[in-house]
Amino acid sequence: MLKTAVALGLLCRVRRTSARHLYTDPAPFWIPTVRSIYSRGRIGRIMASVVVDLRSDTVTKPCAEMRRAMAEAEVGDDVYGEDPTVNEIQRYAAQLLGTEDALFVTSGTMGNLISVMVHCRHRASEILLGDESHLYFYEQGGVAQVAGVFSRPVRTLKDGRLDLKDLENKIQHGYPDPHFGQTRLICLENSHNRTGGRVLPLSYMREVRELADRYGLKIHLDGARLLNAAEALGVEPAEIVRLCDSVSLCLSKGLGAPIGSLIGGKADFIAEARRARKMLGGGMRQVGVLAAAGLVALRRAKDNVRLDHQNAKMFAKAVQDLGSPICSTDPAEVESNMVMLTVTPPLLGQDLCDRLSAEDQSGVVVKALAFSPVRVRLVWHRDVSTENTLQALEKLKGVLLNYRDGATPRG
Ligand SMILES: *Cc1c(COP(=O)(O)O)cnc(C)c1O
Predict the structure, then answer these.
(1) Residue limits of the Aromatic amino acid beta-eliminating lyase/threonine aldolase domain (predicted)?
(2) What is the pTM of this model?
(3) Suppose 53 and one of 61, 80, 234, 367 were both cysteines; which one would form an S-S bond, judging by CB atoms 3.0 to 4.6 Å apart?
(4) CB 224 near ligand 1, within 6 Å
């Protein structure tokens, strides 16, 4: 009897996790239906907690419209250039970016790596990039591991710009003297992740362009959040990209697609990028199922991004209004979809995150990322509404008040 029950239970589990089941079940187990989890409250009642996940804008889940578009996507073999949906998103992206052509790739990391590889095809190539850039910080030095390209880091200012003097000083002039490599490329990031979504002004980007032209260098823009930058600057994305030789853009950040990035550039650049993508194992076949989600993301991106910025700014202003001695932020530094909280000891960043994510009577769980002992990062995205923002704010208020009263969090 017991054996039968266990066997049945196992069977159900297998069924629930089988790929086919995922596809046909209207609510597969891995989609939290109302972004809620269930927990036992103080009085033993089962109560639902709302989860507001602000750790990153990568945490979004594909919505019903995306899933429908994925299910219905027309597909073909993209390595043969025959996937109509991939071709459509590439045309759409080229128009949006104002580039001759565009290429669908698996991730922002692959987009950056491919771009560097195509710009730096000779041995001893060097790139100049920010010492706080994603490319330098979070991509395993892939340009060195895979492409044999040397990264020369440049000092990053508080607002994400590179120190122009340092940038110019780090250009190598000695080539072909055998002591020196050859500087070929400058990499910028807009908006800038590690400085909290700061946006590079167009005037600054023009200055970098002038510098690059003076020394015959190319510019690659890590535009994982290019659309956030465009929204913040009040310009079309193409106006930013115009100042660069190539760009990569993430669909899987705040725009809400489950996967995918795009590279934009001149036609011959993209032709080489297509070769590099295949060599790296990124030649995908009937990948229109993914491009279809990306198209949904791109078409509604403007509204999403605008709302994210509004919510982030509202949150930052409200935190400032709290006037807490242990947790603050400067709304003037909130330019896109991120808020950096400054935490004052004895409260520490991780401690604040633990308290925010602790379940309590508020019924709200807020997930945030401790960037350092004194900094906590919050990121807005497609799956965080204005209501969620207000809920997160209430939770933060409660945590800070409790902390001042010396109470320890439950759980
Ligand atoms: C997320 C991110 C990337 C990498 O994107 P993945 O798709 O996660 O590989 C690159 N640059 C910046 C600025 C990012 O934020």
Answers:
(1) 53-341
(2) 0.87
(3) 367
(4) yes
